[in-house]
Amino acid sequence: MHDLFVGSEVGRLRQVIVHRPGTELLRLTPDTKEDLLFDDLLWVRRAQEEHDQFSAALEAAGTEVLHLDALLRETLAVAEAKEFILDRTFDERLHGPAAAPLLRQMASELDNGALAELVIGGLTKRELLELIDEPRSIVLHSMAPDDLVVAPLPNHLFARDTSCWVYDGVAVNSMQKPARMREALTYEATYRWHPRFAASAFQRWSNGLDDAQATVEGGDVLVIGNGAVLIGMSERTTPQGVERMAKRLFAAGSADRVVVLNLPKARSFMHLDTVMTMVDERSFIEYAGLGELPSYTITPRGGTGGSPLDVELNIADHAPGHAHRAIADALGLHGLRILTAEQDLHSAAREQWDDGCNALAVAPGAVITYDRTPTSNAFLRESGIEVIEVPGGELGRGRGGPRCMSCPTLRDTV
């Protein structure tokens, strides 16, 4: 087995975690979609077909594709992992002291496949009462039949965000929105106890269970190489989260520089990878409307290694317009190639919304993109980038492209 390592955004992609759409997306309704962070309802069967083609494109590029639901099912076969998941899924603060122990007991008796389905897909009161008699519980008694006893995790579709591999380790991230916070349990359990990961040596930064305002999401984290990391401060990733992540990376000796871009705090700029992704060793595709952003460079004072408590941060402030130079400096390059298709403001905004900048590199100069962004795709091809198109008619409704839907665990370094 190869050691798990992600030292680049563009090195050949060897192994990746994805999550095929399932029951959790059937929980979206006009009334619940906003709380679950979706702008629209997805036609789930078509979304599954599109996701299957995405997985097939990855495999055709030589990438081993790991499916999150299968990983969770296999992880639950480990007793400690099952206890960990049960303890944190059923809580009297959420379900009340009358119902919580009975719900936990019910779930503990499910087979691992059914339990994995419950954890990700959620559970309604109607479905619960097909399994057990209704407990004497004010919490449950006051629920309507189709109210959710266990909330679904539809954003697991975007495997990039809740955990991200950075050089020789993985960060299980603290998510900014309540609808996504429980996703961290799936990854925390998988990385701790699944045989595939338990047998490998890697750093694990477990930020996801209680980091308060210090949130970081993987869509804002680009491992650009040369020991450097590029992080966007967005509506989901906070300055506190960036500084804490930098300290942990420096303490582990995993990185020696973090470049930070201060993004507009808007849903259309949800994560850095919705406006800027790397497509080869020195090239980025970038949204025309991004503008000149303030940026920062963080380095450790006195070198890397030791405890995070002992790491002090040097923070250099860059004026707007300096960001590309700061990224190039971090990569040891004289300059970057910034790829921005020429198009009118309205067309550029539509393509950015449709994830035209959210390219997933499978090798240097070879990327997977949605077919719904033809102008960006044509421009990439004209710029010498190989573009592998996958359908995104339904998947794109979730506001996440191929990079969002992938969590690389093993990449070649370039």
TrEMBL record:
What the entry lists under InterPro entries is as follows: Arg_deiminase
A Pfam family annotated for this chain is: ADI
The EC number(s) attached to this protein equal 3.5.3.6
- UniProt keyword terms in alphabetical order: Arginine metabolism, Cytoplasm, Hydrolase
What the entry lists under PANTHER family is as follows: ARGININE DEIMINASE
Tell me which residues this entry annotates as catalytic: 404 (amidino-cysteine intermediate)
Q: Which reaction does it catalyse?
A: L-arginine + H2O = L-citrulline + NH4(+)
User: SUPFAM superfamilies, per this entry?
Assistant: Pentein
The UniProt record lists the keyword Metal-binding: no
Q: Name one GO biological process term.
A: L-arginine deiminase pathway
* Molecular function (Gene Ontology), one example: arginine deiminase activity
Name the record gives this protein:
Arginine deiminase
Q: What is its main location?
A: cytoplasm
Q: Under which pathway is this protein filed?
A: Amino-acid degradation; L-arginine degradation via ADI pathway; carbamoyl phosphate from L-arginine: step 1/2
